[in-house]
Each structure stands twice: as C-alpha cells, then as structure tokens.
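We close this part of the discussion by returning to an individual protein. The encoding preserves chain order, so positions in sequence and tokens coincide. The sequence in question and its structure tokens are set out directly beneath this paragraph:

===
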Amino acid sequence: MARNVLTIRELGSETSWLLVQQAIGIPDAKLQSDFMSEKVALLAFARHSLPERLCVTAAVRQMGGTTIFEGSPSGAWHQEVSDFQKHLMPIFGYYLDCLYTYALPVTTWKVSEGDSHFPIINAGSPDAHPAHALADIACMLRISRDLQGVTAAWVGCANGTLHSLIEATAWFPFALRVAVPKQFDIAGLEAKAARLGSPVTFVETPDEAVQGVNFVFAGYRGELDALQQAEWAITPELMARALPEARLLLCASPVRAIPVSPAVLSSKASLLVRQAEFRLRVHKRILHWVFDF
C-alpha cells in the first residue's frame, strides 16, 4: 500500500513530528542526492502557482528525479481524474512514481478506491496544505525551541494552510487564534476545532488576534476588495500589538496573502526566506518518507 500525504490529520502525530524534526535536521536545504534517480513525479496543478511549482520541482530534481508538469486551469483533465479516478490511477502507475496535486480538494480523491500503487502528495488544496503547515511549524520550532506556551495568530481569509494548522494543534503544543473577515462562513473551521478539542479560538478583528502572540500569519486575501485588504493588512502598528520578538509568516506568496507593509516584510520579524527554505526541506523529507519503507 502506497504512502500518501493528503492531510495532517491522516498523517498522525508520530509522522507529523518525524517530518518536522527531520526537516530541521537536514544540514543543507539544497543538498543534492540520487534518492529519486529514475523516478518520475507528475505535478497535476488545477491552478497556476509558481511558488508551489518551483518548490516541488526543486525538491524532486535536487534528489535526482524527473518532473512532468500538467497545469492547464482550463483543461478538462482534473474533472476527468475526479470522475474516473478508480479507472485512471492504475494506468497512471505505468508512467509515474508519484503524483503531486495542487488546487484539487483532497476530499474528492478517494485514494482507497483508486487502486493506486504510487504515493499521492497534496501540494496545496482549498481544504488542506500539509507541507506548508509542517514547514511553518518547523520555522516556529527552530525559533522558539519549544512550542509549549507559544501562540500564533491567523489574520485573513481561510485557505488550506489554515485548515492544516488547525489540525496540527492536535499534534503540536501551540495555540492558534484566528480572525477571519466576518462575511466569510467559519462554521466548518469552528466545527473542526471543536472535534479536535485543541487550543483554537476565533476572534473578530486583527487587533484581537495578534494581541500578545509569538507568531503572526498573514492569511489568504481571497476575494477581499482593496478597502477590505487595507483594513486587514499587516502593518507595523498591528505587529506592535504582538510580543516584542514576534515573527511574521505568510500563508501564501505576497500577491495572494493579506497585504503586508513593506516595512514589516523587510524587518527582522519577517520569516519569508526562512519559510521558503523549510518548505523545500519538508518536501524532501516527505519524498523520503513516502518511498523509504
């Protein structure tokens, strides 16, 4: 049975901790190897994302593998895969060794029914982004040394990273305080947090979210208009409400995340470059985990 990485919840506590600790332990994020020599990874992207494509491609290629990219948002292939997954997965197995999906809700992927004998890795979906969440937790752990007593704030619209961070609070000892613009329904997020029984609280404003926290996540900007984006932007004044040494993490690329003031983005609080490093580290550890057993 192939190992898959679709959600943090399905990975479980032991594997989630293992991937984070191993990612931190890699001596050089760009270390070259031949671990994936002669292996082919298909990148099936239902929406364009240069950062995700770069990161996944770099991970596979630096480990000696080959990538094939299919990323036509207007193409019918993603509907075909969804409708005929059980029939197509055995055929895919003739041509590839692992499959990355992006922008496809993982709840539509009935892996157990697809008879796939190759790993499927979720590189980001509306309802989960395990690699981002684990990489950001690795960043937090590297800085704080211990997540016990750490509180992170989420400011902005929900995306797969937020879903995975909420799930991660069940395995990692940090608290999460979430502020989402009130026009968006958060009932599903609240229900998920309640089922997990983990320390996730929901507040109404960015000011409430960041008060006294250790880390601030610039959430997804979604469909917010220019005025709403300005109201939810991460400014020096907002960061001043967090703890003095609080750090900023972006949930997505700067053009998709809640606007961040250039003064904040270029300050020592910003972990943007560190996030890119740890996302590469985590993807490499994921590839090791799905193949090395």
Notes: The first strand starts at residue 40 and ends at 45.
